[in-house]
Design a protein that fits this description.
Strand content: 5-15%
Low-confidence stretches: 83-163, 165-187
Number of strands: 7
Strand order of the largest sheet: 4-3-5-6-7
Largest sheet: 5 strands, mixed
Shape: globular
Number of helices: 39
Structural class: mainly alpha
Radius of gyration: 31 Å
Length: 831
């Protein structure tokens, strides 16, 4: 709506809509920058600077982070220009104006407080102090009797409304702070610290399982917020890597998590063989003991149930129904193995954690969280991964509410299921102190193509998990996942400078992380910087020697520079001498290289080698259906459209065994869309029309925005075949989720339609974006050589003969040894 208003020249209306969005998402730097720009366009430079101050105060107050660089830079530019007198601006009219208020200690954008329209229809904008409003032209000069008579009631109304809104702002600010810190009610957020074991030496280690069980059970108490043990282990390992299990480390972890109270205790053996647990509740701020309890029982589950009942009663809350064993396990041995596995997982020992979680499940096959963490720690094939997640999901109803939501969110993320966002939102609202809800919400928004919103949620994860980015990499690092997804979001928005800045920050934060250097390499490849990309790859290989043995990754860089000879030599060497998975990758990239050179006969032969090897290896990552995709694509590019269509359609009915419905849908959508390109080449409008409906229905099963929109690509093909290029352009544009990292075949077809309409500058921009991409994934199905050739044609149509020559020369060089089918195109480009 804001962009629509700006497009109509309604700067004030645009500012009003940006204000409303800022009220809903006050920490989003992109929204803050857009609002400031809109206010400047409306002539309200002072308002823009005021919002910069509000945003800066909020980010500092709620996230304890410095303001976004772009917002700060824009504010500085506006201040430098402040000597120019600001143009008076009439107030924005109508309900689209949202209110922003500030206090002496901070500021907050308050959603949901509608401006009361005045007699003239003006919307009331509440600021820290009421801004002067130019007098309407029909009023007498200020100071006259008539002026006082007409303006005093209005001024009184403004003052009263301002006072009322400020009172509401104070209340909302308090609630906002409370929600941001993860505290609920007067008692705040609790953490379970050290349970000291005073039994005789050699007794089974029940102290740590007791702490985890107690945290799990307290989280079931309605109205009580508790930090999970997994989160406590994670923070303690970051803060005190040498002694993560000490009382001091756990206290520091509780404070870092935002807890206001700590539960600790002591475990004793009674003469009759029973156990006694002494608990106390401590205020973290001053160390005062608020309450102390003592319970006894025959096992750790009875101790936890009794202790939970006592703690809940002391807080004036009702204890949870049933026993903690109902939502965990009834095996003390299984729980002990599980907590040991958690500690191994947090330390970064995935293999050790996997063995312990498997052992816990061997003791109790119904232990839901052991199955969930086994899925997260196991580095096996995708079929194994989803098998473990499916097992956890089947057991989820035997877990507590928090853990059930975590399991379902983890499964939905692994499966790219559309349910991920609502599950993640529920998890983040009910348990705001846990990272999973916020991270999975950001991940869901990223998959939905909502890049700006995803970045906002992921930056919150960084604020909560900033410790994970300190020092050497290792152990669980949700913040690292969040940084990687932020880079993906910016790169997918074709904001490669911003993506590179985040990748550079990551390598500054974790210079020993090979993953961080690999992400920097990717972004520099997208930005068509092969030499800096190679430097980042070499640094990553120094940190992870296994990357140095990946000849295919090394040669990948040469394809961007058009050095096919060097790349092909490396690929063939790896295909002949490398390990099985390395040979598979080498054949995959070699097929891409041969396609880029227009050597379709050789490419088809090599794609066949790849398919046979993949079938022999039964690789979960590359099932037989996937293995045939490049074969089908080579046939399509070679002009053998009937064969390509038959193979793509055959692939569409093959899917990975035991896969989830969302992945089966994704697989079918992908193959059927490629087949639709062959149908368009055959000008088969009847089957294209039917395929549109099929793809629209299948798309609802996937969380990926690309899958949900690919039916629009096929619609565009249908319109183009019918000669309806205006409608084709509209359809192709709506199919694009990412201008550069999406299905770049859509870019190519859109550019062709634009050229037929005489809109060559738009065609140039569309094709340029497609070149800022990868060689794989959605960009696999149109080669860079094809894009250079098309971009040369577009520049020629736009009158840019020099630019056309650059791109045509690149295509001619790549196709110098191409099959004869490309001869006429090469000859035309030479001319």
């Amino acid at each position: 709506l804001a962009r629509g208003a700006a497009g109509r020249g309604d700067a004030r209306g645009a500012a009003g809509w940006w204000r409303r969005l800022a009220a809903h998402d006050p920490l989003n730097a992109g929204v803050a920058e857009e609002l400031m720009n809109a206010l400047v366009a409306a002539g309200d430079r002072a308002g823009a600077l005021q919002h910069a101050r509000i945003y800066e105060a909020l980010v500092q107050q709620e996230l304890d982070l410095p303001s976004d660089h772009e917002v700060v830079s824009l504010a500085e530019r506006l201040r430098r220009d402040a000597e120019e007198p600001a143009r008076p601006v009439a107030r924005a009219r109508g309900p689209e104006v949202s209110e922003v208020a500030a206090s002496s200690t901070g500021a907050v954008a308050v959603p949901g407080i509608a401006a009361s329209p005045t007699a003239s229809g003006d919307g009331l904008v509440v600021a820290p102090y009421p801004a002067p409003t130019p007098a309407p032209a029909d009023l007498p000069p200020a100071g006259t009797r008539s002026d006082r008579w007409r303006r005093t009631p209005r001024a009184a109304g403004v003052m009263l409304a301002t006072a009322l809104v400020v009172l509401v702002v104070v209340a909302v600010l308090a609630l906002y702070r409370q929600r941001s810190s993860g505290r609920a009610g007067d008692d705040g957020l609790l953490a379970v610290g050290l349970i000291s074991d005073y039994r005789s030496a050699g007794a089974p280690d029940f102290a740590r399982p007791l702490a985890d069980l107690l945290a799990t059970n307290l989280a079931r108490v309605p109205g009580m917020n508790v930090v999970s043990t997994a989160r406590m282990y994670e923070l303690a390992a970051r803060l005190s890597p040498a002694t993560p299990g000490s009382a001091e480390a756990l206290i520091a972890a509780a404070q870092q998590a935002g807890a206001s109270g700590l539960i600790d205790g002591a475990l004793y053996a009674l003469p009759d063989g029973r156990l006694r647990l002494d608990l106390r509740r401590i205020e973290l701020g001053g160390g005062a003991v608020r309450a102390a309890y003592s319970v006894s029982g025959s096992d750790i589950f009875a101790l936890v149930d009794s202790g939970t009942a006592q703690l809940a009663s002391g807080a004036g809350l009702a204890p949870p129904s049933g026993t903690v064993a109902d939502v965990t396990t009834r095996s003390e041995v299984a729980y002990r193995l599980y907590t040991q596995g958690l500690r191994e997982f947090q330390r970064g020992s995935r293999a050790g954690a996997e063995r312990l979680f498997e052992a816990a499940l061997a003791e109790d096959s119904t232990f839901a969280m052991a199955a969930y963490h086994l899925a997260r720690s196991g580095p096996g094939r995708r079929s194994q991964l989803m098998g473990n997640f499916d097992r956890a999901l089947r057991l989820a109803d035997r877990a507590s509410d928090r853990e059930r939501l975590i399991i379902r969110a983890g499964w939905a993320a692994a499966a790219s299921d559309p349910a991920l966002l609502p599950i993640a939102e529920t998890l983040s609202v009910r348990y705001p102190q846990e990272l999973e809800g916020h991270y999975y919400a950001g991940r869901a928004l990223l998959e939905a193509g909502e890049y700006a919103a995803a970045i906002g949620r992921l930056r919150r994860v960084l604020a909560m998990d900033s410790l994970a980015l300190r020092g050497t990499p290792g152990g669980r690092c949700t913040a690292c996942d969040a940084v990687g997804d932020i880079i993906t979001a910016y790169a997918s928005s074709d904001s490669l400078d911003a993506a590179a800045r985040w990748a550079e920050r990551w390598v500054r934060w974790q210079p020993q992380s090979a993953v961080a250097w690999q992400r920097l390499r990717e972004v520099r490849i997208y930005g068509q910087q092969p030499e800096p990309a190679m430097q980042a790859y070499r640094r990553a290989a120094e940190l992870d020697p296994s990357l140095e043995r990946r000849t295919d990754l090394y040669a990948y860089h040469y394809l961007y520079g058009g050095d096919f000879t060097t790349a092909e030599r490396a690929f063939r060497e790896a295909a002949a001498t490398g390990p099985p998975e390395g040979r598979l990758d080498a054949h995959w990239y070699l097929t891409i290289s041969l396609r880029m050179q227009g050597r379709f006969r050789d490419a088809l032969d090599n794609a066949g080698h790849y398919r046979r090897l993949a079938t022999q290896l039964e690789s979960g990552a590359r099932d037989p259906g996937h293995a045939a995709l490049q074969q089908a694509q080579v046939l399509f590019e070679w002009g053998r459209h009937v064969e390509a269509l038959a193979l793509f359609d055959s692939i569409s009915v093959r899917w990975i065994r035991n896969e989830v419905p969302s992945y089966r849908a994704r697989h079918r959508i992908w193959a059927l869309t490629h087949g639709a390109n062959a149908l368009a080449a055959l000008r088969d409008t009847a089957r294209l029309r039917a395929r549109v409906d099929t793809l629209r229905a299948l798309g609802t099963a996937s969380a990926l925005a690309r899958d949900r929109r690919l039916y629009r690509h096929v619609e565009g093909l249908l319109f183009a075949v019918r000669g309806q290029d205006e409608r084709a352009v509209t359809a192709f544009r709506s199919a694009i989720v990412s201008p550069n990292l999406g299905y770049t075949r859509t870019n190519l077809e859109l550019a062709r339609a634009l050229l037929r309409l005489g809109r060559s500058p738009e065609a140039v921009a569309t094709l340029q974006a497609a070149l800022r991409s990868s060689l794989e994934g959605p960009s696999l199905y149109v080669t860079r050589t094809e894009l250079h050739a098309a971009l040369g044609d577009a520049w020629l149509a736009a009158g840019g003969r020099d630019s056309a020559a650059v791109h045509h020369r690149e295509a001619v060089r790549a196709w110098s040894n191409a099959d004869s089918v490309l001869g006429p195109r090469v000859a035309s480009m030479r001319r």
